[in-house]
Amino acid sequence: MCGEAYLASARVAEGMGPFPGYAANREPMLEVIAMHRDAAHRIPTRGVASDLRQAAAEAWDSAFECGTAAGFRNAQVTVLAPTGTIGFMMDCDTTGVEPDLALVKVKRLVGGGTIKIVNQTVPRALAKLGYDEPTRTEILRHLEATGSIEGARGLADEHLPVFDCAFKAIAGTRFIAPLGHLRMMGAVQPFLSGAISKTVNVPEDTKPEEIENLFVEGWKLGLKSIAVYRDNCKGSQPLAAAGEKAAEPAFQPVRRKLPDERVAITHKFSVEGQEGYVTVGLYEDGKPGELFITMAKEGSTLSGVMDAFATAISLTLQYGVPLEFLVNKFSHVRFEPSGWTNNPQIPYAKSIIDYIFRWLAAKFLAPEDQAAVGVQPLAADETSPAAALPQPRQPALPGLDAGEAGHMFVNQADAPSCPTCGMVMVRSGACYKCGNCGTVHGCS
The pTM is what? Predict the structure, then answer.
């Protein structure tokens, strides 16, 4: 095939000229073609049909003669590809010049799962070696049970090398030595103009010095490329000898994003005068998939923290964490600001986080889950949230009397949270004062 390809390339060069740079490399190129021709004439007679040997020799003689006169249109014409996918679809046991990895293999599928592959040429090889039908059946039964042909009843020891593979079976000891791979490639390389796509399989315990020696030996054999593969050097490999314990693939989380256009619910809330908005984006099935929390006082530390917190919760929802777990975890979390709300189902919130997650429970969870976190059932005749709003008996902020409490909304409309204790502060002239710990903040 390679000789015919070079002959065709020389004939194309007669009409279109040789490849660029041929003139400067004419002598080395012709020396290479001559080496290919000499290798074809040295093909041994044993095991090769005489007409095939003669056709190969004639092809190389013609390629050298024509190329000497006209040059070559192509610098290289052939390589040896693995054709793994095509070979698998054609039900081939081996591909290219690769030996079989194992007589019984386990292949991991891309979509998950495995299939067991048994070399289909073993019965034919046993028949060629002269084994009768009962003996072949016994040997094949042993092979399928153990994954190795070694120790099979009736199999002669001198025939074991015929069935050697790239990997050592779990129940066996034999495998093709790394130098065996190199010598096979060395036998094929003289009849190719390019490299050979083939792995040189070595055991897992191979030392660096041994791998270095393989490259030196490959150079001596005239190989144009070497690809060493050490068994189990990767976290996962597509083929493994039968009997090996397949490593469980690492769990890969999958994020379920919301569509670009989605339905959302926006809810306004107030916890002890601290107002905000919570927006929940919904999947097509009505389940929550994202959360946005906007505080009324933009730019405050609390607003920034709540925005980052909402992003984290959105990611947990999209990666499949059930809302029930989040509600149980964050309900009744206590920190300031806390206090009365205008929601009859959640009359009192221990924090803004407590309010938000109990509101999520009221909107999206079953009644029993709502009751578990203290969400009050909504009466049928309650049309206004203010109808069930309880009146606090204590002043909204410590240190304020009833008269001052009546003006609470006006006093703290632009008040930030206390940097010391988190309580909502109260305007005091040009400053803000915390009625809980006495901290003064914002004075110029």
Answer: 0.51
